[in-house]
Amino acid sequence: MTQAQLTVLAGPTAVGKGTVVAALCKRYPNLKVSVSATTRNPRPGELNGVHYYFVSPEQFDSMIERGDMLEWALVHGKNKYGTPRGPVDEALAAGEPVLLEIDLSGARQVRSNRPDAQFIFLAPPSWDELERRLIGRGTEGPEEQERRLATARIELEAASEFDHIVINDDVERAVGELAALIGLE
Ligand code: 5GP
């Protein structure tokens, strides 16, 4: 099996990207997951430099101006999120597999900059299940939930743009399928 160097994983809010990626990293410590920069505030338990680089809107804009972002997007119409280019290029140069967990618009930018990357869409088993997961995790208020569900509807319609669709019906099963697609051993 060949190893895809750069893999982009996208999928709607609350589909379980965070859980799946954490399980994937635990099983395959050689996989490098890019740490994004964001202007949103940390949630309880989130650490700067681990889950995200939490930066001010001004810091974010100067990263864009310096050309330091491989891609970036305004997500859910609210906060900016982006992939710092340096660590990705360094890992790829060292021959390490790299995973980006980003939104649809970011995935489209990477598609045009790095056509050799592999694009995987993580999908929920059903729309009802996605709503249940978003409301059940309780990290967003009703207004933010609505905003995220609106984005999710648009993202789900774009699933066919991706090279592969993985259904997150069971975390361990989805992790196994992803590992095979990425070529992890
Ligand atoms: P959350 O606020 O729940 O951590 O993330 C919200 C969304 O931002 C997720 O759907 C995630 O895929 C997206 N996201 C996280 N990091 C990046 C990034 O670096 N670039 C882009 N384009 N989207 C990102």
From TrEMBL:
Gene this chain is encoded by: gmk
Recorded GO CC terms: cytosol
Name of this chain's protein: Guanylate kinase
Top-level lineage group: Bacteria
Keyword Protease annotated: no
Organism of this sequence: Actinomyces bouchesdurhonensis
Purpose of the protein: Essential for recycling GMP and indirectly, cGMP.
Binding residues for ATP: 11-18
SMART domains membership: GuKc
MF GO annotations: ATP binding; GMP kinase activity
PROSITE patterns: GUANYLATE_KINASE_1, GUANYLATE_KINASE_2
SUPFAM superfamilies according to UniProt: P-loop containing nucleoside triphosphate hydrolases (SSF52540)
Residues annotated as domain Guanylate kinase-like: 4-183
Keywords attached to this entry: ATP-binding, Cytoplasm, Kinase, Nucleotide-binding, Transferase
UniProt record similarity statement: Belongs to the guanylate kinase family.
